[in-house]
Specification:
Length: about 280
């Protein structure tokens, strides 16, 4: 069977997959890949760097003094940890009102909230900004006040959409999704891609895509990178990540699962089916 670009699947390593994860994350993902009989390469195109405590405190204080908060929305488990650690470090800071409700982007974020004693947390059906937006669209309460806990690098599309529905939205930027200090894992992926070592790659966030292409410019010129990527199966977690890839000319498969573990399993299953056909 031929893949786009004319290369036979037989020339590819049939069981090697690369997956983007933030610096410090990915061990559990790698173990999952190995349990499925594949070889993982976790490469880091994002490093989550906490903002200065005082900047976070100022944002929290401002949010808590502007009136009742109906919902606090956490976009990652990192945001949960950083917010509650800051609250614990500043005991004189206003507390979150007890009637405030919590929304987590996915099960891992909900588990992080549970570790801080937040037992009642809602999770949308789709674990993404789109899923959160759709969930609020079905909310009966009119004009809720919402606080988003998220990365400084995140775009404003979710906040803007919620405001268009009548919500009052405040964003607390608690960390930055920055370029990694150590780029070696990305270079390892690029070298392996050049040598045809990978059968598939999964990009797990939009920022992982944009940072990856910025780094890759130092290794590939012209359309060489796109050509190489289009010779393997490229997956994206969520439509925003897929759009980032497609806008660059990369053929992209979007697993219908927003959990990274399930997306990995889906991509491997599809690659295995292609190999067998």
């Amino acid at each position: 069977m031929k893949r786009p670009g004319g290369r036979s699947t037989a020339e590819l390593d049939p069981k090697m997959i690369a997956i983007t994860r933030p610096v410090g994350n990915g061990n559990d993902t790698a173990e999952l890949v190995r349990s499925l009989g594949w070889t993982p390469l976790i490469f880091h195109t994002v490093e989550l760097k906490p903002l200065d405590d005082q900047k976070i405190v100022d944002q929290i204080r401002s949010s808590l003094t502007q009136g009742q908060i109906d919902w606090i929305v956490f976009m990652s488990s990192t945001g949960v940890k950083l917010l509650f650690d800051v609250l614990a470090s500043y005991p004189n800071l206003l507390r979150i009102p007890p009637e405030t409700r919590f929304l987590a982007v996915g099960p891992r974020t909900r588990e992080s909230l549970l570790r801080y004693g937040i037992t009642q947390t809602t999770v949308p059906e789709k674990y993404s900004s789109t899923g959160l937006d759709e969930w609020f669209s079905q909310l009966n309460r009119k004009n809720p006040r919402i606080v988003l806990i998220r990365s400084l690098s995140a775009d404003a599309s979710l906040a803007n959409s919620l405001r268009a529905k009548g919500a009052t939205v405040t964003t607390i930027n608690i960390y930055d999704s920055a370029m990694p200090t150590d780029l070696q894992s990305v270079f390892d992926f690029l070298d392996g891609l050049r040598l045809g070592q990978f059968a598939a790659v999964l990009f797990t966030s939009a920022i992982s895509v944009s940072n990856f292409f910025t780094i890759a410019e130092t290794k590939f010129e012209g359309t060489g990178l796109i050509h190489r990527l289009n010779r393997i199966l490229v997956g994206a977690v969520g439509p925003v990540t897929a759009e980032q890839l497609r806008n660059r000319g990369v053929e992209t498969h979007v697993p219908d699962e927003y959990l990274i573990e399930k997306a990995v399993a889906k991509l491997i299953s599809q690659r295995t089916q292609l190999q067998a056909s």
